[in-house]
Structure formats: structure tokens, C-alpha cells
Known about the structure:
Helices cover 27% and strands 20% of the residues. The chain has 171 residues and is of the alpha/beta class.
Amino acid sequence: METRKSFPDKKEIRKKHLAIRNAMSEPETAEKSRAICEKLLTSDWYAITDWIFGYYPLGKEADCLEFLKKALSDGRHVALPRTGADCTMEFYEITSLEQTAEGAFHVMEPTAECRRYGYGKGFYDRYFARYAKLNRFALAYENQLEPELEVLDTDIKMHRIYTETGEYDII
């Protein structure tokens, strides 16, 4: 008889990592975020990319705002997600972080005048499934990494994860 591998419950993992993040001090999150941004700016792909699909950090998530500002000043196109009431997500190009306002889930999102980039429904997995050729990079603190997670058919893998201490190629 085949035994199925048991994985930790994703809800419990999210809860654990939220508690770890929330326990971090402001100086610690600022320093780790600065280190992550530096890794992004010196990465091989940054030198050749024209587009950055980013996010606006919420709470003590890895803060990529300095990276996004630098990308804009370097002439890169930057797009941030906006979510709809029907659980859709689309990316909109911005030319300044001042083009954001509080949206769904209290996340800062591009305002209505920003140019739309992307079509269809879904949050990140569904979005990336539709745009499979996009390079997908995640930002995380080192203490958020898990040695094993259950992967569902609908989960879209990142190509690389950037933390304050390293880069991890996934695919």
C-alpha cells in the first residue's frame, strides 16, 4: 500500500511566519529589507530587464519600496497589482509610488489613472499561470523559508527567492 507523505498544514505555517515577522523589530526589518533590495539591484536579471512587477509591502513584509524607487529612476517600467471585489488581480504600470492609494486588504494599490498591464482573473498563482514566461522572483526574510511545503497543482513556483542573506534558485 502506498503511503502519502504528510506535510505541515499551510494555515499553521502562515500563522507561524506571521508571528515571526510581527516579532521582528523595525530596525531588523529595515536592515533585512535593505539587504534584499541590494541583492535585487545587483542581480544579473536587473541589468537586462525593462519591466518589474512588484508589490507594495504590508505590515512587516519585506519592504521593496527603495528597490521600486530605484527601478523607476533607472527608467524601468514598474507595475503593481490591484485587486477587484471578485478576487481578480491585474497589474498597472506606475511612474511614481505617489500613484498608489489604500485598496483591498488595506494594501496600497495603483490608482485608477495608472495604465493597465495584464488581463483575466486570479491572484498571483492564476496570474503567473497565465503569464508563464515571466521571470518570477519572491522576496522573503530568511526566517520565512521552509524546508518542505506541500505543492498543489495550482501552485506556481518562483524561479528565485531573494532573502537578506542569500539567493535561492528554485527552477
